[in-house]
């Protein structure tokens, strides 16, 4: 008879297999640029129902496992006889991690950055700086930093430090996950493609024909597009006082994390959902670049519905009007939420500052979206390169050009036009974060937008 743990493991494997089948069905339809046919939809729904049943059984098994765990007794290994008695008892041995839970998302990655900054300031290895501050509360973090610095740490498969590699990746993943949650770009399910790979596709719908015997087959029209995404980089440079870096409270660590995240998150969304042209080798074109904006017809409920109908028109004409999403500023979403009809009922009850739905379609909101824009996008028609991680650099001696329009350049030497501030002289540390990203429309009809929305008529007749 299988143990509860073994049953849970088997059911988790079953669930993963069914989920993979569902993903394969959806991917197949995406690649064919169509919705699921009747048979595929039936198979998808059946798999979905089976997964729900597996989830219910898993919840019961985990509850049972928890109840059994509460009965478990500590192992007494003081004497051979006592150890033998302990081993004879049924139940589970509870192992408590020596690491404290993260106070906030991305805390351990932020601590790695702070430890490296302290190492620069104090002239010691980063793992020593980490051990001095978090040796008792986060020993795994300290062990990871030590294994990264000492070659004998043994991070290869089978060596003593191998398990730390995956833990280190989790810390970085937590930080990236928090960064992704702060950008609309990373929340939308754009299609990931490999970097530096050319992809050719059709831009627009092709037409087929019924053909009589012996008759010529008319050629199917259609424009074709080519996309090749090289990694471009979005970067942010934060100057932080040494006093803040030495402050050990969670609130100080959170300030450091937010300093690393805010600037880069802002730049990503303001570029992605803009009309900006591409800068060769520097930044991609915004998704709204080259599009003709659709003017809003008014500010009441009927006008909102008319605007949505106008936004849908190009997608319907291009025959890919399924799976669309709205993108807008939280303030505009709130204005829609507050709108009521003549009976005092909400016009659009599914929407709020955090997103939701508008007339049946998902809404994503972001503070860096233009407040008068209502953007309708087909995520399947937007390519982006896969996640390539982040790079962190630290300096306490650099001279920083303090200006949002800094002009200094290395490839074509150009002098700084803004005041230079010494990190050494000002008792500060410069922390630079760089993330490679790139994106492009698969077809020109991937996005449409209203540029002058000003909804807010509280009562609509």
**N-to-C CA distance:** 68 Å
Note the run of SSEs as H and E: HHHHHHHHEEEEHHHEHEEEEEEEEEEEEE
- SS element count, helices: 12
CATH topology label of the largest domain: hypothetical protein PF0899 fold
Q: Major sheet, described briefly?
A: 6 strands, mixed
Taken together, the total number of domains comes to 3
Structure characterization notes:
The chain has 461 residues and is α+β, with helices and mostly antiparallel strands. The chain has 3 domains: 85 residues; 75 residues, no CATH class; 239 residues, hypothetical protein PF0899 fold (2-Layer Sandwich), CATH 3.30.2320.10. The strands form 6 sheets. The protein has a 6-stranded mixed sheet with strand order 7-8-9-5-10-17, covered by helices on one side. A 3-stranded mixed sheet has the order 1-11-16, with no helix packed on it. Strand 8 and strand 9 form a beta hairpin. Helix 6 packs across helix 7.
Summarize the structure.
The protein has 461 residues and is α+β, with helices and mostly antiparallel strands. It has helices spanning 4-31, 38-71, 80-88, 107-122, 126-134, 139-149, 162-181, 184-187, 242-246, 250-272, 301-317, 330-338; strands spanning 191-193, 198-203, 223-228, 232-241, 325-328, 340-341, 351-352, 355-358, 361-365, 374-377, 382-385, 391-395, 399-401, 420-422, 428-437, 439-441, 447-450, 459-460. The radius of gyration is 28 Å and the shape is globular.
Task: List strands and helices in order, with pairings.
Blueprint: H1 4-31, H2 38-71, H3 80-88, H4 107-122, H5 126-134, H6 139-149, H7 162-181, H8 184-187, E1 191-193, E2 198-203, E3 223-228, E4 232-241, H9 242-246, H10 250-272, H11 301-317, E5 325-328, H12 330-338, E6 340-341, E7 351-352, E8 355-358, E9 361-365, E10 374-377, E11 382-385, E12 391-395, E13 399-401, E14 420-422, E15 428-437, E16 439-441, E17 447-450, E18 459-460
Parallel strand pairs: 1-11, 5-9, 6-18
Antiparallel strand pairs: 2-3, 4-15, 5-10, 7-8, 8-9, 10-17, 11-16, 12-15, 13-14
Helix pairs in contact: 1-2, 4-5, 4-7, 4-10, 5-6, 6-7
């Amino acid at each position: 008879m299988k143990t509860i743990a073994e049953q849970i493991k088997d059911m988790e494997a079953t669930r993963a297999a069914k989920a993979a089948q569902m993903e394969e069905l959806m991917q197949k339809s995406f690649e064919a640029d169509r919705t699921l046919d009747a048979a595929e939809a039936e198979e998808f729904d059946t798999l979905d129902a089976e997964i729900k049943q597996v989830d219910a059984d898993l919840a019961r098994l985990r509850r049972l496992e928890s109840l059994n765990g509460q009965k478990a007794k500590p192992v007494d290994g003081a004497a051979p006889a006592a150890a033998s008695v302990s081993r004879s008892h049924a139940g589970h041995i509870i192992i408590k991690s020596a690491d404290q839970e993260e106070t906030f998302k991305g805390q351990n990655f932020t601590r790695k950055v702070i430890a490296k900054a302290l190492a620069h300031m104090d002239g010691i290895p980063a793992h020593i700086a980490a051990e001095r501050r978090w040796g008792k509360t986060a020993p795994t973090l300290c062990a990871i930093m030590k294994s990264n610095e000492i070659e004998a740490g043994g991070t290869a498969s089978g060596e003593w430090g191998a398990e730390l590699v995956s833990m280190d990746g989790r810390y970085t993943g937590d930080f990236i996950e928090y960064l992704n949650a702060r950008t609309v770009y990373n929340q939308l399910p754009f299609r990931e493609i490999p970097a530096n790979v050319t992809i050719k596709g059709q831009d627009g719908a092709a037409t087929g024909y019924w053909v009589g015997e012996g008759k010529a087959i008319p050629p199917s029209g259609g424009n074709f597009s080519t996309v090749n995404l090289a990694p471009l980089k979005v970067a942010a440079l934060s100057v932080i006082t040494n006093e803040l870096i030495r402050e050990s409270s969670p609130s100080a660590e959170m300030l450091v994390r937010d300093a690393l995240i805010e600037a880069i998150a802002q730049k990503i969304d303001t570029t992605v959902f803009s009309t900006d042209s591409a800068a060769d080798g520097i930044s991609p074109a915004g998704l709204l670049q080259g599009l003709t904006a659709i003017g809003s017809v008014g500010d009441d409920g009927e006008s909102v519905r008319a605007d949505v109908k106008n936004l849908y028109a190009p997608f319907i004409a291009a025959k890919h009007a399924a799976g669309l999403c709205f993108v807008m500023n939280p303030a505009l979403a709130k204005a829609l939420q507050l709108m009521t009809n003549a009976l005092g009922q909400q016009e659009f009850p599914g929407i709020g500052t955090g997103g939701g739905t508008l007339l049946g379609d998902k809404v994503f909101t972001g503070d860096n979206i233009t407040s008068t824009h209502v953007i309708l996008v087909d995520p399947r028609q937007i390519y982006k390169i896969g996640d390539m991680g982040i790079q962190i650099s630290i300096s306490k001696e650099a001279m920083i050009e303090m200006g949002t329009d800094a002009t200094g350049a290395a490839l074509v030497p150009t002098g700084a036009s803004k005041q230079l501030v010494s990190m050494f002289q000002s008792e500060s540390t410069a922390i630079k974060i760089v993330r490679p990203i790139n994106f492009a429309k698969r077809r020109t009809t991937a996005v449409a937008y209203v540029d002058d929305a000003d909804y807010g008529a509280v009562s609509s007749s």
